[in-house]
Structure formats: structure tokens, C-alpha cells
Amino acid sequence: MVTCEIHEGLARVRMDDGKANAMNPAFLTELMAALEQARSAEAVVISGRTGFFSGGLDLKLLPTLPAEEFQQAVNLFERTIRTVLEFPVPVAAAVEGHSMAGGTVLLLACDLALATPGPYKIGLNETAIGLALPEFVYQLARVRLHPRAYTRALMFGMTFPPEEAQTLGFLDELRPLEYLHSVTEERVRAAAKVPGDAYRKTKAMILRDLLAVPEGQLASGISEAFRSLSLGSNLKK
């Protein structure tokens, strides 16, 4: 479902489960393994499949898990997002399809995000399906999105075509599909030329309020949101 290849210092992490790249324990385990492999690279590009970057957390499987397994899954999701945020080298997302909820959290965790125009949507649609946003996601959105996007993108959970997603801050650039990956790699390679210590210290400063959110808050926020919606009776056992 997730592969990593490293060529000339660049790690290409590709997510492709043949469907929506829904994040369940097996998928997240493979993604974490790919990120661990990518630590030897000078820069990283995370991409999805044509049609889907990621549909977010697996809302079909996760609510059916026993409470302990569910908690392990959302803990793994949080570790994955924090791993990308705190990655020691630049990370870019190359988007060529839908990115929803947890998929967009992953997208926003990357240092750069490029996408191709197309008939698809990007957004943090949690509130639209009845899930309150955890503090961690709000702080992440504050770092990445323009303030005028907060009401529509966070409070109303609206989703946006790539052109509007760029104006709101979800994306840095739009490129035709035939150039998307080459330009993304060019941008992240250029970012990797910034001296590493300066990059890491400045990144930590920019993300200070976000990284100050206690570890575990994202996972516990997701759990509470699922319980409030009764999405899985197993979670109450």
C-alpha cells in the first residue's frame, strides 16, 4: 500500500491501496515504515494515487475495532503526523486527487504541497460529518491556512477544488499533471539546500504552538469525537 524508493538523495513515498488510501492500522504501519526508510534521504516527496491523495481515516473499519485496537490506531495516526511534521529534512506533498480529513492533516503536515488541477476536492471536512476538530488540527491549520479560510474550512468543514484550496493556503502551487512530480521534486530539492541546522531550528520556531499541544491530544480528540457520534459501539465497551 505504501512504497519508498530513494534515488539521488530523494525519497519518493507513494501511497496506493488501489482505492481511497484510507488510513487504517495496516496502511499507517506501512506509511511509518516508509518514512523510517526515508530518513536516510536529503528530501522527501509523499504522493498518492491518481484520483486520491488520501480519503483520511478509515471510517468503515476503525469504528468496528475493539476499543483498545481503535486507540492504538489513532495513536499510530498521531505518531505518523508528528513524524512528518518533525521530519529532519524537507517534505513535500504531490497531490493528484481527493484529500479529505486525515488525508488533509497529512498534506498540511508537509513543508510544501503542490497539486494538479482537476475535478477533485481538498478539505478538513470533519465538522461537516459531525466530528469536532481536535486542538492539534486547529493549530496545524493556523500555521498553514490563511485566516480568512478558518470559518469555511474549519467551522463549516467545507471542501474545495484545488484552485480555491491554493488561495486558502492548503496548497503552494498548481502544476499540470505531466509536470507535477518533476516540479515538486525540484522544489523540495531546492529546500534541502537550506543548511540543515537553520532549517530545523526555524521550523521548530514556526511550529512552536502546534508542537506544544501535548502528545496524545490528537488521538484522544479523535476518540472523543467518535464516541460523541456513537460511530462504533465497540468504543464504549
Structure description:
The chain is an alpha/beta fold and 237 residues long. The chain has a single domain (2-236), classed as 2-enoyl-CoA Hydratase, Chain A, domain 1, CATH 3.90.226.10. Helix content is 45%, strand content 16%. The chain has ten helices and nine strands. The strands form two sheets. A six-stranded mixed sheet has the order 1-2-3-5-7-9, sandwiched between helices. Strands 4-6-8 form a three-stranded parallel sheet, with helices on one face. A hairpin with a 2-residue loop joins β1 (2-7) and β2. The longest helix has 19 residues, at 67-85. The mean pLDDT is 94.
The global form is globular
What is the helix/strand order? EEHEEHEEHEEHHHEHHHH
Question: Average pLDDT, to the nearest integer?
Answer: 94
The N- to C-terminal Cα distance equals: 31 Å
Percentage of helical residues? Answer: 40-55%
Which helices and strands occur, and which strands form pairs?
Blueprint: E1 2-7, E2 10-15, H1 25-38, E3 43-47, E4 51-54, H2 67-85, E5 91-95, E6 97-100, H3 102-109, E7 112-115, E8 122-123, H4 135-144, H5 150-155, H6 162-168, E9 173-174, H7 177-191, H8 196-206, H9 208-211, H10 217-229
Parallel strand pairs: 2-3, 3-5, 4-6, 5-7, 6-8, 7-9
Antiparallel strand pairs: 1-2
